[in-house]
Amino acid sequence: MRNNLKKEECVLDGIDTKLIELLYANARTPVSELARTVGMTAPSVNERLKRLEESGVISGYRVEVNPKVLGYSLMAIVRMRQLPGKLKALEALIRSIPEFVECDKVTGEDCYVARLYLKNISELDPILDRVSELADTNTAIVKSTPVTRRLLV
């Protein structure tokens, strides 16, 4: 039998929101410091974090890597429209190219919008040549990022 239960939307209070903001800024913040900042005990903060994790609000703790420090000076956004019958092959190819760091399957004329990092512009054409066997592409080089990925709470 199919489960028709709808998962309820999680409602955050001010303390939950503050904890998420603190962890978003630094996921390695010790629980004792989080507790001091929000005016609670460490066990209480641990319980809140456990509840936020179990409800799916907090889905993980991540390290943020600066691509420029690793020599990746260029970021490009590639929009792709697959050739007939090539959707699954295109997705597999995108997954196999490590320079693609993010990809969304979208509606509209394009089927994928992806971000990739490059050490220099000469790396772009070989990647696009591989992709063009399966899709038409439209590429833009990112000049700056006025809004970085930000917190929703």
UniProtKB/TrEMBL annotation:
<dbReference type="InterPro" id="IPR000485">
    <property type="entry name" value="AsnC-type_HTH_dom"/>
</dbReference>
<keyword id="KW-0804">Transcription</keyword>
<dbReference type="InterPro" id="IPR019888">
    <property type="entry name" value="Tscrpt_reg_AsnC-like"/>
</dbReference>
<dbReference type="InterPro" id="IPR019885">
    <property type="entry name" value="Tscrpt_reg_HTH_AsnC-type_CS"/>
</dbReference>
<dbReference type="InterPro" id="IPR011991">
    <property type="entry name" value="ArsR-like_HTH"/>
</dbReference>
<dbReference type="Pfam" id="PF01037">
    <property type="entry name" value="AsnC_trans_reg"/>
</dbReference>
<dbReference type="InterPro" id="IPR036388">
    <property type="entry name" value="WH-like_DNA-bd_sf"/>
</dbReference>
<keyword id="KW-0805">Transcription regulation</keyword>
<dbReference type="InterPro" id="IPR011008">
    <property type="entry name" value="Dimeric_a/b-barrel"/>
</dbReference>
<dbReference type="Pfam" id="PF13412">
    <property type="entry name" value="HTH_24"/>
</dbReference>
<keyword id="KW-0238">DNA-binding</keyword>
<protein>
    <submittedName>
        <fullName>Lrp/AsnC family transcriptional regulator</fullName>
    </submittedName>
</protein>
<feature type="domain" description="HTH asnC-type">
    <location>
        <begin position="12"/>
        <end position="73"/>
    </location>
</feature>
<dbReference type="InterPro" id="IPR036390">
    <property type="entry name" value="WH_DNA-bd_sf"/>
</dbReference>
<dbReference type="InterPro" id="IPR019887">
    <property type="entry name" value="Tscrpt_reg_AsnC/Lrp_C"/>
</dbReference>
